[in-house]
Amino acid sequence: MRVLVTGGGGFLGVAICRRLVARGDTVHTLQRRHSPQLAGLGITQHLADIRDRAAVHAAAEGCDAVVHCAAKTDPYGQGREFESINVEGTRHVLEACAATGVRLVHTSSPSVVHDGRDLEGVDESASYARHFSAAYPRTKAAAERLVLTSAVPAVALRPHLIWGPGDPHFLPRLAADRNRLWLLGAADKTIDTVYIDNAADAHLLALDRLGHGSPPNGCAYFITQDEPCGFGAWINGLLSAAGLPPITRRLPAWPVRLAAGLLDHGARATGLRPPLTRFLVEHASTAHWFDISAARRDLGYHPRVSTAEGLSRLAGHLTAHPLERRP
Hints:
Layout: E1 2-6, H1 11-22, E2 26-31, H2 36-40, E3 44-47, H3 53-60, E4 65-68, H4 79-100, E5 103-107, E6 119-122, H5 135-148, E7 154-159, E8 162-163, H6 170-176, E9 183-184, E10 190-191, E11 194-195, H7 196-209, E12 219-223, E13 229-230, H8 231-241, E14 250-251, H9 253-270, H10 278-285, E15 288-290, H11 293-299, H12 307-320
Parallel strand pairs: 1-2, 1-4, 2-3, 4-5, 5-7, 6-15, 7-12, 8-11, 9-14
Antiparallel strand pairs: 10-13
Helix pairs in contact: 1-7, 3-4, 4-5, 8-12, 9-10
């Protein structure tokens, strides 16, 4: 196939591109900046913004399928920018798919059903949240709705907390801020995550099984390790892989939630970025783990890399490519 991957230069996008190239597909990507990693794979890169409708249509021309990973994922920011990237950008992708008659695999997020309360073993029958604490989950929910109600053969995947070698965001920030972080609540809440290779595998499985009238068409699927674990245990597992000491300090969750809400309110009034957001506090202090039976049944998804193996691979990668250490 000839496949366009939007956001191809990102953490997940690169992993998907590697797998597509390895199996013989012709890959094009659309992202804002040139990627040396993609260049090394011989991939044609279209350097443009997902908000550029004409550029999206041009990149999709001649393709058989699109994998849409591009998104603004910041836990804080102005709603207008999230709308233009996550919602209008997705609309451009859908229009391009409809114009060229191709199928779409859309990267969504489990946060579309998270309303700040515990989610324990829920499946895809869970409703979209009625209230969102940040622009990111609100606009991802709007984008997913667009995808699943369109006439384009499409599937939405909800990979949860992607981690592994090459993560440019979560682990580096966690390591940099480790001396200022606390665990919340008297004990760990249970969460799900997904290793980068498993998340990429799920996208290829969905791509191959998608078509008019096929079971995945018009459906959303949670994608996880299927190994729920304690939030603190997962955080400290990542820190251990980086050769860093664990976080053991704890605070009650409710005053931190209150403080984060006040900081969010102050940030909207001043335009300054808050040091803590309600969205992050909610995810650090609630359970969020999911039943992936539907992904197993319809996509044939089975996490190939266990959490233990993933942490071992991460440790090996960080031995060769240490994180930048900050005081």
